[in-house]
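Please decode residue identities from the backbone states below.
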């Protein structure tokens, strides 16, 4: 007898909304004002945080793959990371459809909250190799759980540590004195080291895309608030401009000068 059961109905009772937890997800947009654009503002930030969560997951797996000498797997993961990071940059355009006048209708309600306090953003920086202890103390109202996550990231190996392990697994020296020589050897002998070279390029693209997001963010900030200081207490655009010069993997940039 033919069964009328559809694919997926064999086991549990999942539906689209139950699987994706939509009642819970869609109950989390709670504006502080009646300003029409605040829903956009909340939505875009929540979408960023979801992508940040995925990026942390993927970067952890890239790090693991490098430690396990599975460079092809790390490269596979980086393709996804880069695609998500490009989306993060593109998404700024959606928020820029908001006028500064419309932002001002609810901006004062947000203070002292600010993107400054995005724990996942800081986790991404720490995991990538940019560990700055000042961000462990400067977080207003972070929960114990969030602080513990950041402290753990501070103590954990970074993507750069994992790359150095990948180099040494191929017999290349990674001491401070010899590291640039090893990076140059990889760059100059691609017949032997192409996988390590391509992986370094993947790291560099991750670094470059993060910097592009920072530049895009500060452009948006200048368009929205000009020279005003930030709700998080910083100088605003000048502080953020300074952050655009940060690099996760400074030696990969320095390498260019030696080639
Ligand atoms: C109207 C739009 C936005 C404005 C005017 C704005 C403004 C600012 C300002 C002034 C700061 C510096 C800290 C402070 O004093 O407040 C900052 C930091 C930050 N913002 Fe935004 N922001 C906007 C949208 C976004 C969006 C959509 C995100 C996505 C998650 C975001 C993420 C961040 C992050 C992660 C920081 C910390 C950067 C760092 O410390 O390097 N911002 N923002
Ligand atoms: N710091 C922004 C406000 C802002 O954009 C914001 C406020 C609360 C939560 C996230 C935010 N996004 C990025 O900083 C400002 O000074 O206008």
């Amino acid at each position: 007898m033919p069964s009328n059961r559809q694919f997926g109905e064999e086991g549990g009772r999942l539906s689209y909304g139950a699987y994706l937890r939509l009642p819970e997800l869609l109950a989390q947009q709670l504006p502080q004002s009646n300003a029409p654009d605040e829903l956009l503002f909340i939505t875009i930030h929540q979408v960023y945080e979801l992508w940040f969560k995925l990026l942390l997951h993927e970067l952890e797996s890239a790090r693991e793959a490098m430690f396990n000498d599975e460079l092809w797997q790390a490269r596979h993961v980086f393709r996804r990371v880069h695609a998500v990071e490009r989306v993060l940059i593109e998404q700024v355009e959606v928020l820029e459809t908001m006028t500064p006048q419309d932002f001002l209708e609810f901006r004062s309600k947000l203070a002292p909250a600010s993107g400054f306090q995005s724990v996942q953003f800081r986790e991404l920086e720490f995991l990538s190799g940019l560990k700055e202890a000042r961000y462990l103390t400067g977080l207003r109202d972070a929960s114990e759980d969030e602080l513990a996550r950041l402290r753990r990231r501070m103590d954990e190996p970074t993507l750069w540590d994992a790359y150095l392990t990948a180099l040494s697994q191929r017999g290349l020296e990674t001491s401070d004195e010899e590291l640039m020589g090893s990076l140059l050897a990889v760059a100059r002998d691609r017949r032997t080291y192409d996988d390590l070279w391509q992986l370094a390029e993947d790291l560099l693209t991750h670094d470059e895309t993060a910097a592009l997001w920072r530049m895009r963010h500060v452009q948006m900030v200048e368009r929205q608030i000009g020279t005003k200081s930030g709700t998080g207490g910083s100088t605003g655009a000048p502080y953020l401009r300074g952050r655009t010069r940060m690099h996760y993997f400074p030696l990969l940039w320095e390498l260019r000068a030696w080639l």
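Observation: The chain is about 65% helix and 0% strand.
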